[in-house]
Structure formats: C-alpha cells, structure tokens
Amino acid sequence: EIPLIELRELEKYYTKRVWPQKGQVLRAVDGVSVSIRKGETLGLVGESGCGKSTLGQITARLLEPTGGGLFYKGEDIAGSGSRNQQDLRRRIQYVFQDPFTSLNPRFKIGRLLEEPLKLNRLGKAAERWSKVSDMLESIGLDESYRNRYAHELSGGQRQRIGIARALMLNPEFLVLDEPVSALDVSVQAQVLNLLKDLQQELSLTYLFISHDLNVVHYMSDRVAVMYLGKIVEIGEMEEVYAHPLHPYTQALVSSIPAERAAQKRERIVLQGDLPDPSAIPSGCAFRTRCMHAHDRCFSETPTLADVREGHAVSCHLWSEESYSVNEIKEVRT
Ligand code: SF4
Ligand code: MG
Q1: CA-CA distance, 136 to 140, in Å (whole number)?
Q2: Which of 116, 120, 267, 310 has CA 20 to 30 A from 88's CA?
Q3: How many Å lie between the centroid of ligand 2 and the Cα of residue 62?
Q4: Tens of pLDDT along 130-153?
Q5: Looking at ligand 1, which atom is closest to the CA of residue 287?
Q6: What pLDDT, in 10s, does the model give residues 245-280?
Q7: Residue range 204-248, pLDDT digits in tens
Q8: Region for 272 from its dihedrals, namely left if φ exceeds 0, alpha if ψ lies in -120 to 50, beta otherwise
Q9: Ligand nearest to the CA of 283
Q10: Which residues surround ligand 2, an ion (CB under 5 A)?
C-alpha cells in the first residue's frame, strides 16, 4: 500500500552567514526517512531544538528541504515545480502552537474562517456562509462566535479556530505542531479529544508534534523520536512505550508518571543539555548524554534499523552481536 506521505532521506541544512559561526553548517533535519499511512497519527517527539518543527514545516511544504524527497501518495512533491501546487496546498495543512499569532486581529472569526475559501475562489457567498456554520458546529462553538475577534476568545477556543481554519479546505493531512502546548492542562484534553473526533469524522491523517511524550502517547498510533535532526527510534506507540530501546527514548519514557504499579520504572535523568545543533558530536550524536556510550559510539554513526517488526532504533547496542536483547534489557531495568 502506498503511504499517504513519505519522507526519503530528507535534509534541511543551513549555512550560518554571520561571524563568529560563519560557514558553520546547521543540520536541522539530517536524513529523515519515514512513511505515514492514511488515517493514522504519527507522533513526533523530542526536545525543543531537535528539528521537529522544521521537519513538520517541510512536510507541510512551508519550507523547502535542501535534500531528499517528499512524496504524497507516491508523487514527488518536494520540488517547487511540481504539478497540482494549489491542490496540494489544500490537502496538507499546518496548525501552529499559538494560533493567535496566525489569526489576523482585525478580522472577526467568521471572516477568518471564510478567508481560505475566498483565497481559493471556492463557493458562492451563501455556500461559504454555511460552510463556516458547519465548521463552527464541528468544533463546538455556536454562531455567535462569527462576530467575535480572536482576542476575545480563550486559548482553547482560539486553538479550535486555528484547527477549523486548517480544515476549511477539506485537507487529508494535518501537521499539528505542539497544538496544545500553549494551553492549560485542563483545556488540553478537550482540544485533543476534538482532534480525535475530527480525525474519525473527516478521515484525517495527522503528524502530531510535541515535546510532551504523555500527550503524544494519548494521541498517536505510532511514534518517532527525534534527536538532533535524526529519528533515533520509531515504532507502534504502545510497543515503544512499553519497550523503549534507544537510551534517549528510555529517558523520555522514564519521566512519565506510571499509571499502574507494573509500569513503574526507574527515572533516568538525562545528563547535560542538548548540544549546539551546529556542532553535533561525532559518531552517535547522543553519546554526550548516554550512559551506555562506548568506543564505537565516538567513531561510528549508528543508523536506524529494525530490531523487531515495525520497531526500529538507531543505536550500536542493538547491532552488536555481543549483546543479546535480553542482556540489554537487564542492563536497562
Ligand atoms: Fe548510546 Fe552509543 Fe547507543 Fe548512541 S550508539 S545511544 S552513545 S549506546
Ligand atoms: Mg517547535
């Protein structure tokens, strides 16, 4: 089956132009290959600065990659010269963390929602009006919201409008970039549940980006863990949550409060900070913070490889014959 979205060896490199870093190359996204199936939610988790948003923006075609391929239903869409540009823009939409910054403060909500239709010359005025009504209903807001301004709304309501605006053109795929991170915890669940309901109702596919593994766990079918521009682990959400293989994922998972006693894990506290992305360590980029780092980690960069079916990890521990899976588990638990 052809995936809805496929990233192949995607890269986004920036060359710094300003002294004292002039000429240094920042590898924001460094050879990412991942497929997203129709109807699923792929969670993308990692610390801020690891390249998640850059990857999301490339996937939504808001940024051009400097290398690699981006495919939509098998068609290469990375080049700006590709056909169906307008059609593609409609099918893939991006929802920002803080919709307030992307909502024009001078426009009423009704106009903000109608705008994407107008820009794409879709529908007559009466049709656009009723589409806005339907959309307000879908996101749980009544008609009176048409005449309000974004600044009159709560954070949760504004994010509902941000989501509604992204849905006005009937997209198939949404990149959700930290969609609840700016919201109070009490409001987060409402917005997440709305996203789940909309996904069902409209057969949507999501790339769900968050630094919060708890939120990603709630939302995702599969999860990809990103560290310094690379995917270091990917698999089914429950599998990765129960059996994290990469030392970085193990640290992230260990920081989640356990729901049941059986899930209790020892907290692994990461040493040090995320290294400067323009000075990525040689060998394994995680070695400066990894308690299992050994000689090979300094000289050789690990690659993402399947350890179990559908569960891949990028770490030398898993490719070394001297370690068996069980031995590693003992070391870790
Ligand atoms: Fe740690 Fe080495 Fe694995 Fe990197 S390759 S995560 S440094 S053990
Ligand atoms: Mg970000």
Answers
A1: 6
A2: 310
A3: 14
A4: 999 999 999 999 999 999 999 999
A5: 7
A6: 999 999 999 988 766 555 567 788 888 888 888 888
A7: 999 999 999 999 999 999 999 999 999 999 999 999 999 999 999
A8: left
A9: 1
A10: 53
Q: Find the Cα–Cα–Cα–Cα dihedral 303, 304, 305, 308, rounded to 10°.
A: 150
Q: Which of 240, 225, 303 is nearest to 270 (CA)?
A: 225
Query: CB of 251 closer than 6 A to ligand 1?
Result: no
Domains of the chain: 5-332 (3.40.50.300)
The C-alpha atoms of residue 223 and residue 220 are separated, in whole angstroms, by 7
Whether the CB of 317 sits within 6 Å of ligand 1: yes
Please tell me the pTM assigned to this model. 0.92
227 lines ligand 1 (CB under 6 A): no
* Residue of 246, 292, 327, 332 best suited for mutating to test ligand 1, as the one with most atoms within 8 Å of CB: 292
Q: What is the dihedral sign for C-alpha 90, 95, 98, 99? A: positive
Residue 285 CA: nearest ligand 1 atom is 4
Minimum-distance ligand to the CA of 44? 2
